[in-house]
Amino acid sequence: MRAGRLLHFLGAMVSQEQNHGLNLDQWLDSYAERANTLSVSEVRALFAVVSRPEVVSLAGGMPYVSALPKELLSQSYETLMASRGNAALQYGSGQGDPVLRDQIRELMALEGITSSVEDLIITTGSQHGLDLLSGLFLDAGDVVLAEAPSYVGAIGIFRHYQAHIEHVFTDDDGMSPEALQESINNLTAQGRKIKFLYLVPNFGNPSGVTLSESRRHQILEICRRHHILVVEDNPYGLLYFDEKPPLALRSHDEDGVIYLGSFSKILAPGFRVGYVLAPPAIRDKMVLANESALLCPSSFSQMMISEYLATADWQKQIDTFRSVYRDRRDAALQALADFLPGVRTTHPRGGFYLWLTLPQGIDSKAMLPLAVKELVAYTPGTAFFGNGTGQGNLRISFSYPTPENIRVGIKRLSTVINLQTELLDTFGPKGA
Amino acid sequence: MVSSDQGDSQKLVIQVLAGGISHERDISLKSARRVADALTEQGATVIMREPDADLLGHIQTDRPDVIWPVLHGASGEDGALRDVLALCGVPFVGATADAARLAWDKPTAKTLVLLAGIQTPKSITLPKTAFKELNAESVMGLILESMTLPLVVKPARSGSAQGATVVREKRDLAQAMIDAYVYCDVAIIEKFIDGVELAVSVIDLGEGAIALPAVEIEAINGDFGFEARYHAGETNYFVPARLDAAVADAAAAIAVEVHQLLGLRHMSRIDMIVDADQNIWFLEANVQPGLTDTSLLPMGILAAGHSLGETYHSIAVAAHKNRG
Fold it and tell me: Which of A175, A183, B225, B230 is 20 to 30 Å from A202 by CA-CA measure?
């Protein structure tokens, strides 16, 4: 707030009823109710230190864009400007560039999906696609079923639409169909309205686990039986380290699955281009919603990606990313085995993340200030639950730091956990 | 404000230090951007820098007339950086290293204030090793026997209420200790005083310290914690505070006295509580008060009828002249 504005408030306050005091947000009574779902936290403030080079950040899920040869993009730019420059700088279709949509079909075919160009919508990152979907489907109090833990960005969106997030037990093979059935039964008995099931089935964020083939079929069957839409968010599916994950859920069900894809992890998040494949009726509403929100996604970004896909060996580039992330995953697992042998971790076969289960009593959110002091950052487990749980877990992202820095960071993390364990030993877990 | 000499209107080059590696890095950056904007509007040339390995080189190349360390938390407020700045020979805003050390360490500040006859809530200060060596359960038992609930547990050296807890039930003491020790190896356990929470800022340009109108804080959810401090809308402020004139005058006098007692310079913020019997209790002194959108010192300046830009510029000029 500029000084003049603060002064204006003070002046207004003095001239008004003294009993009400001065609230620095003079529009407090004007916000929509859903604005109350937005909040800051001390954890967010602590993340300000993550940008410092002294800190090893295992917190953010940032792709290692340094592994992307920039000359490939420079060539794409030159070609684009020469061939379709005016179109790239102009407004475009609300559904997205048809050329890119056609190329995306080829990309999705790698995961077993066949589709029509007509059913694809380009969005500003898949996060935007999820927001559009949530806006179309969620009323306050509606239920979204999600893995336990689930993607923090999705939780933020669902909260913003005032939905209730029901986490379903998830293990090393992904979401449990039995637990899903039980949750549906319970919620149905309570008269709750379940709007959709949200899944990150491949190398999930934050767990790193992959939904098994058999569970994919079981979950689809359960959702079909209960007429529950499935939202399949798949940013990491092509970033496997050894063998491909099972085919996408969407490849087994065209009518009951909305598929979200993204170029953020296989190319670069700076373009902010994602896509949604939806059944026709939903697609029509999404296009209208997209136009209403943005008019159109960025023509420039779409056409840059289109040129890149047309001219560069993008499959080879994805191989490079796989190799980089595999080395980093290995470095992280080795460091955990060396420095934190008592801490349980998932063993992802792709993607960006490890999910750690801490020794009994340690609260990862409460421990974060200590980690900042020791110059290492992670994401507390509580970020990945909509119900306040997850204290006993934390997420490590191995995608961005070098293998050497990952080792340094995990060594520092071991110091932090040991210090916190010592505190708990002194006072008893949770002050018991 | 506040008589900045007209002859001081030369275009100062001011290096604003912001960020640092502390739990309050984000607050520091927010404060510093406000200070930089205000000083720029006054015609100063402002250069923002991180207090990092390149800082001494930057001081040589930037050749600032004055340095303003808008740094919260350790190194910014514990005196360490201020000692280095003094060695550089460039005038800087705020307390000297010695004074900063006294104020930053809450138990030391409380002791000095108490010796001067100013009330401060009864407290004890314990390093975490004391609990480890003397058996935590026994020590906590002794604390709970000798001190009446509720208690406030907070890190001995930290800011922005991080790691601070009001303990209302015996069973919550251990967790409160853990939360405080996450921030600092030493914690204060202090008697909780129920009353009106006040922040009295002091401006000191070398012509005598002046207390700004007291800001009364009423957290909407009852807890003026981290979120309430830095999230507009979470707190109601009363400026000036709803106090009897005599109490307001007494609070102002205490703020000035504490500021002088601890040897602070240019500005400080003294936090207090006024209980139901109108007794004023000193809680802590802030070496580098927050200067964000929602901070208390800027509210005090504006409530006194001054502009932020002119006041900040006057502070920089005073520091440049090595006054205050």
Answer: A183
Q: Please tell me the predicted confidence (pLDDT) of residue B230.
A: 54
A341 in contact with chain B, both atoms CB, cutoff 8 A: no
Is any Cβ of chain B less than 8 angstroms from the Cβ of A367? yes
B52 contacts on A by Cβ (under 8 Å): 52
SS3 B124: strand
CA–CA distance, B147 with A94 (Å, rounded to integer): 67
Q: Which residues contact A77 (CB under 8 A, 6 or more apart)?
A: A304, A307
A203-251 pLDDT, tens digit per residue, is 999 999 999 999 999 999 999 999 999 999 999 999 999 999 999 999 9
CA pair distance A267, A316, nearest whole angstrom: 12
A375 touches chain B (CB under 8 A): yes
The matching CATH number, chosen from 2.60.40.1180, 3.50.50.60, 3.40.50.300, 3.30.1490.20, for B123-191 is 3.30.1490.20
- pLDDT exceeding 70 applies to what percent of chain A? 92
In angstroms, the CA A305 to CA A328 distance is 26
Q: What is the ipTM of this complex?
A: 0.81
Cβ–Cβ contact A2 with B under 8 A: yes
Taking the CA of residue A47 and the nearest CA in chain B, the distance in Å comes to 8
Which CATH architecture fits B6-94? 3-Layer(aba) Sandwich (3.40)
- State both tokens at A312: 């560069």
Q: Which of B27, B128, B173 sits opposite A426 (nearest CB)?
A: B128
Q: Which domains does chain A have, with CATH numbers?
A: 42-63+316-425 (3.90.1150.10), 84-311 (3.40.640.10)
Tell me if A10 and B218 make a contact (CB, 8 A cut-off).
no
Joined together, the tokens standing for residue B109 give 């500040």
